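The records we work with from here on pair a chain with its fold. The integers have meaning only within a learned vocabulary of local backbone shapes. A complete example follows; check for yourself that the lines match position by position.

:::
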Amino acid sequence: MRITLPLLSLLCLTPALTAQVSSRGPHTGIKPAQWKFDYYQILARDWNPRLKVEIFQQAGPHADLYLRRNQPPTLTEWDARSVTSGTSNELVILDQTTTPVLTTDTWHIGVWRPHGTSYSISYRLETEASTRPGPGAVPWDDRPNGGRGTSFRVWAPNATSVYLTGSFNSWNTTNAPMASEGNEWWSLDVRNLLPGAEYQYVIDAPGSRVWRNDPRALQVTSSLGKSVVVDQEAFDWSGDNFQLPAWNDLVIYETHIGTFYDAVGGDPGTLLTAATKLDYLKDLGVTAIELMPFCEFPGEYSWGYNYSHPFSVESHYGTPEQFKSFVKAAHARDMAVFADVLFNHWGPTEMDLWQFDGWSPGSQYGGIYFYNDSRSQTPWGDTRPNFNSSEVRNYIRDNVLMWLEDYHFDGLRWDATSYIRSVNGTDLPEAWSLMQWVNDEVDALLPNKISIAEDMWSNAWITKDTGAGGAGFDSQWDPNFVHTIRGNLIVGGDVSRNMWSVRDAINYNYNGDHFQRVIYTESHDEVANGRSRLPEEIWPGNADSWFSKKRSTLGAVLVMTSPGIPMLFQGQEFLEDGHFDDHDPLDWSKLSTFSGIHKLYKALIALRRNLPGYASGLKGSGLNIHHVNDSDKFLAFHRWDQGGQGDDVIVVLNFANKWYTSYSIGLPSGGTWQVRFNSDSTTYDSSFGNYGSTSVTANNTPQDGMPFSGNVRIAPYSALILSR
């Protein structure tokens, strides 16, 4: 906008729409007698990098335009930045990229004119587009030869103008205009605006003005609050040289920050409270912590799958610095950290991305970040991102890389990829190509990271290489395992247990690789949505019963001995009951009450990772389910890596309420096989019988396709793990 000052009028200006300005004048003097001198004064601010002054001579002899910085003019001496004359419009541009405007700078405009000359003068402070890279708010520091500040860049293709507002300008909605870059993006450099400052965008579009948080804000004060400038480079990562363990050494612990460690009746848990349990998790033996979604969501209580700000960490859980500290502290304890991310939908409420720049083809559609037709439909509203948009694709790619690079997360779990790749049963080719592209980017830039999909449709193409047409994920949650194993453990009558289905669940793999699957009996989905924790499902209202303990721990054995990447859900290791509720924190008193169950899980994890040194087969790919007895509900399988002593492992499982004093199974080699684990040990619960073999001597009688055999003693609903 232009402010025009008429000849010889006394003006008292309010701040201009494009800048904070003031005017003094005109002031009239004579030198020589036939000449008059008028002057005006402008206060320029940091966010207005360029001043334009224009004089239009209307009549009379020529007038001259002078400018002086910071010092008042005299009638005889001027520091002339430019002298203009003539009868046409004259333009002076003071480019502040080379001469930065400071907050205290005042520019004086002087017009030296003969009698009889009439003119009009106008000035405006214009914004130049930022020359610094990067979208969002990016702090910069040019010291010692320059200053400090923050560059802002936002995508708003339907905007006619965009203004930056914030704590730096008292939330003025017009005096910090952003410059159009001519490519649907708007940008601005602001000197002396430092991390910690709050800000928003004011976006004008035809027929509307909207206030919006930065889609790439790294921190917000709340879901309905303000964006906060964050310096991603400020955190000290020194000493963090952690590398993701080999996949065959991964044991994942899924946790929810808000309920993991907090007092009953208190506020939701935080990263600081969760961090106090890192030593506990290390002692348990887990090697990877998977955090349920932690991006900013409405309110303080949520599972996290409704986040409003995809680049911001949940304000109640902690700051970006605290998230980084949590990751660094986990790494110091040799534990990886995975982030659960959400790209199948966003929101659906308190979401600044919705109709971000004021445009949408209808009230039910979300505008530039979303599909605006039937493809928008999800079970969570019309909130599916527009995977056809290059800007949205970049937004998702950048989000993935941010968690992995800036926060040092070791892997990502993509939620509900089936709702990314298809809508109402119809494939979205652009969504498939998005997943391929992002996974290829991660593999190229960060090859030691892992990408895990939750697809739940047993789709081998999810974990197939992109070169072969696959989506390129490294692993995926396996529905064949969890649904089959839970079903066979929950069903009341032994006769209904199907050992053939258990066999198939143990043996299932994707593309010939068992480690392309994550296996578990509890996750956030399996313990909510009308379902409960496994012990609760086995006997509702009696999760601490003998039956619940025996059969749920039988499931734990299967998770830790079947090939794949094993996963636990928080509290599973001390028999947490009921169902998952984001208002109900873990009952840590159960760790004392069921300390034996905790010991059982710890022992299983140690065997799974071969910490004792005599069970390396559990880390290998070798699997032979050589004994399946559906009549007696009995099953045994052989695991190995290279084979031989200290490697070969035999897992024996009794799925029936029946004692066996001498049950014969095949063995791969002769000698004495030691029982390394017996789930019926009274070490794990006083109600268990301590019944079972301590060792098994192999005989030369072949059985089950094995060259040797031996007899085991085993309790009901129990498991034995043997090795040589």
In short: The CA atoms of residues 539 and 548 lie 6 Å apart. The chain has 13 helices and 36 strands. Confidence is low (pLDDT under 50) at residues 1-33, 78-104. The first strand starts at residue 3 and ends at 5.
